[in-house]
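hiii so um. not sure if this is the right channel but i have a protein structure encoded as tokens and i wanna go backwards to a sequence. like what aa goes where. can anyone help
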């Protein structure tokens, strides 16, 4: 790829080389590899998701806000180039950032001027994009800072920004050995945040990616100089997921340890699958609530002796579908909670053999997102396969932490008796701006994750 000016252009590099420029306009000249379509029903629209207006496309000006001011800081602040936009509109570099004044008038509070605690607290860090596209770009740069060649991914997965189901299924490509983070695109144009992040990530392909620098899920716009592109484009959720599972088998060179079946009609119950797929390399397949799609049945038969785990309660995946899967593969179990928040907690706590997070004690990472933004599950998937590796947890509103989630975080709250430096710690990524998850809710999560003294004398 030959980008013009990446999102982290102003950060000093250790290589002493001038920073490259961002990617240009989409090109149709990049060599592509088209996977053979899976036998599927006629194309259908992508699985339903919460309605959302697409933001107006803008010309590609300078790097995102706060970049110049933060360029001399640690590499982690590269992420603020995208994620620091929470609640503040789209301020570009070179413009003044006016922090809110306190209610009593006078000068802005220092924490507001510095974007704390909205950006980070002692136990949380926020990826504060205003939509999944900017969240995904922030996550990708948090996991792959891309200041040196060794910090860049070999490939990136581009997914249609309206295809939450394809994005969750594509999360499996973040698992080793491929390790391709997700960015969102569109049919007509690569969004600005994705373009700048892709320019910084600068994937070049590798043996693990079969030479591909991009995996394109759906009919998405590509940047100039994209290199080798492997396309997956079959239309409906079940067929797309089956193709991605086939691609995963080819790239990984082995069968999966488990198969995960999620609902294509209840995205809020499918969301936790993205984090597990990225962490484990287990592919995600889709079913309708009351009927198993033929293309999914075919994919299950390919690995008929591999254990199958169905994610979601009966209203998301019916007992009839579970029985139908059992006829193909008798090793099938359901992991479920009564609502989306409880469903995510069920997978976080669950263990059966080598399947499941089994997080029932302190000392872990977590990712927190809203249950009405399924694409954010895919955007955040790379965080569950790097750093403090942890499950996706869901909250159901901007202001109040659900009682079941609060109880869980209390259950796994870390403590120490004599020496806090030898304790276990919890760390939480918060996804979305303050309209999605407020600073008050983030502060509550921070308190629940805080190391506490539980007895003894220091």
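sure thing!! here u go:
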């Amino acid at each position: 790829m030959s980008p013009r000016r990446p999102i982290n252009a102003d950060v000093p590099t250790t290589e002493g080389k001038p920073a490259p420029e961002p990617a240009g306009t989409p090109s149709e000249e990049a060599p592509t590899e088209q996977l053979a379509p899976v036998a599927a029903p006629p194309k259908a629209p992508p699985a339903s998701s919460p309605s959302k207006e697409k933001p107006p496309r803008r010309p590609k000006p300078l790097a995102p806000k706060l970049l110049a001011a933060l360029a001399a800081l640690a590499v982690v602040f590269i992420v603020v180039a995208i994620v620091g936009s929470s609640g503040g509109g789209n301020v570009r570099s070179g413009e003044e950032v006016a922090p809110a004044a306190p209610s009593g008038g006078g000068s802005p509070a220092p924490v507001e001027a510095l974007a704390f605690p909205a950006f980070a607290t002692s136990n949380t860090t926020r990826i504060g994009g205003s939509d999944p596209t900017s969240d995904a770009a922030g996550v990708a740069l948090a996991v792959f800072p891309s200041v040196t060649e060794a910090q860049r991914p070999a490939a990136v997965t581009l997914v249609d920004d309206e295809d939450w189901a394809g994005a969750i299924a594509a999360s499996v490509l973040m698992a080793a050995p491929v390790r391709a983070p997700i960015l969102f695109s569109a049919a007509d144009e690569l969004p600005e945040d994705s373009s700048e992040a892709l320019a910084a990530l600068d994937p070049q392909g590798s043996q693990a990616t079969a030479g591909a620098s991009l995996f394109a899920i759906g009919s998405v716009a590509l940047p100039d100089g994209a290199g080798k592109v492997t396309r997956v484009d079959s239309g409906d959720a079940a067929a797309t997921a089956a193709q991605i599972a086939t691609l995963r088998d080819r790239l990984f060179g082995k069968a999966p340890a488990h198969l995960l079946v999620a609902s294509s009609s209840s995205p809020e119950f499918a969301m936790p699958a993205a984090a597990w797929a990225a962490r484990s390399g287990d592919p995600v397949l889709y079913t309708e609530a009351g009927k198993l799609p033929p293309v999914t049945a075919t994919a299950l038969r390919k690995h008929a002796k591999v254990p199958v785990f169905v994610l979601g309660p009966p209203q998301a995946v019916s007992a009839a579908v579970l029985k139908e899967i059992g006829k193909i593969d008798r090793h099938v179990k359901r992991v479920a909670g009564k609502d989306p928040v409880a469903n995510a907690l069920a997978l976080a706590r669950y263990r059966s053999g080598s399947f499941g997070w089994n997080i029932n004690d302190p000392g872990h990472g977590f990712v927190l997102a809203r249950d009405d933004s399924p694409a954010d599950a895919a955007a955040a998937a790379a965080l569950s396969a790097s750093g403090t590796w942890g499950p996706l947890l869901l909250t159901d509103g901007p202001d109040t932490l659900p009682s079941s989630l609060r109880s869980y975080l209390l259950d796994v709250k870390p403590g120490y008796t004599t020496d806090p430096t030898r304790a276990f710690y919890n760390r939480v990524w918060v996804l979305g701006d303050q309209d999605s998850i407020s600073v008050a809710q983030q502060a509550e999560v921070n308190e629940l994750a805080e190391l506490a003294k539980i007895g003894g004398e220091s």
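oh and Residues 237-252 form the longest helix (16 residues).
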